[in-house]
Amino acid sequence: MTYKNLAARARPGLAAALALALSACGDSGLGTTTGDTSDTETDTEGATSDATSAGPTTEGPNTSTNPDPTTTTEDPTTGTPTTGSPAVCGDGVVEGDEACDDAGESATCDDDCSLAECGDDQLNASAGEACDDGNTDDGDGCTAACELEQCGDGRLQGAEECDDGDDDNADDCTDQCLLAACGDGYVWTGNEECDDGGESAACDGDCTPAACGDLVTNMAAGEDCDDGGESVGCDADCTAAECGDGQLNVTAGEQCDDGNVDEGDGCSASCQSEVDPQCGEPYLELDDASRNELTVGSPYSCDQGAPGTDWQGPGWYRITGDAGAQLPESAPELFHCGTHSPGWLNGAHPAAQDGVVDMQACFAWIGNPCFSSSNIQVVNCGEFYLYNLVDAPTCTLRYCGHAP
């Protein structure tokens, strides 16, 4: 067999193999031939045998017009084309225009198969986002880090006056993100002494302790007024100035205030004094308990000459303390008042408007209530009496005290 005959016998098999390969690649328009008879000698027996074992020697054109149902994409890891179904976000395969596909939301991939990023308007809890409003602006309810803005987060936003990031209400910013202020109910350390959320019995409206005379009227503390002391319209006890209230208010023009508006009791209805000017002069006091008319027995004293227990010699006296409040208007029993012969006022005490009145003091002795007497003067001072006393006529005589 010649070289040419061997080549002719080999060509048909190679052609058939090439046709099958091209067909597998989808080339439907290409036909193939099994040999070239223009330049070989034909060996009928050999050619027939090889062609029969190799199969068909030609493949006709593919005339199908049906579209290809598959898609061609590129593998992002290798860059080589891949063929498959249309891209589906969430199937775990990155296809088409997907930036990622983790089969759902993940720390790096949103559930729309775009890369997770704060401000992309895709809420991604897996990425730690609490919100995502499509921007990275602070002060709109969602921070630049996609965290919800709220009072106490240390960021000043919205209607907040302050935000120091804590819940300490004793500093300059409350846990409601409002600037500390008197009346907010929180004591601002170093600036307020108290804060009851407004005026209270213990705290003024300016957040200082309530006190009469502090120039802050506190109705809750029972004050009608507070002028820092007595004034024309305000008494020193922070009540409204009024004649007859028992509070002497000289600034309001009162000369007296006996707690009523009665005439003839030493203080008039207009709080003008009805007493004699003598009541405003200095006086001495008889206050020894033994002088009281109820005291019986020794020691016995005499209101004459040298000073005794409380006797200072002739002068204006007021009976007070344990001795009583005035001279008796009837004769005490003998040996009472710390003396043998007790002294008493022979007559009724005068009224305030009577001024200084001349009267008689009697000293009782056996069978005679006015065994001896002295001329004295008496003046009604409204709340007490004054007596202009002289030495007793002899010893042992003494002026007595009486408690009405």
Outline the structure in words:
- There is one protein chain.
- By secondary structure, the chain is mainly beta.
- Among the domains are: 158-212, no CATH class; 224-274, no CATH class; 278-399, no CATH class.
- Helices cover 8% and strands 13% of the residues.
- The protein has two helices and nine strands.
- A hairpin with a 6-residue loop joins strand 1 (71-74) and strand 2 (81-84).
- It starts with a helix and ends in a 5-residue tail after the last strand.
Side by side, the strands of the main sheet go 3-4-8-7-6-5-9
Which range best describes the helical content: under 10%, 10-25%, 25-40%, 40-55%, 55-70% or over 70%?
under 10%
What integer is the average pLDDT?
A: 83
Helices and strands, in order, run as: HHEEEEEEEEE
Please count the beta strands (DSSP E, at least 2 residues each).
9
Sheet having the most strands: 7 strands, mixed
Count of helical regions: 2
Principal-axis shape equals: rod-shaped
Radius of gyration: 63 Å
Task: Please report which band the strand proportion falls in: under 5%, 5-15%, 15-25%, 25-35%, 35-45% or over 45%.
Answer: 5-15%
> How far do the termini sit from each other?
174 Å
Based on secondary structure, the structural category is mainly beta
Unreliable parts: 1-71
Keywords:
404 residues, mainly beta, 7-stranded mixed β-sheet, 2 helices
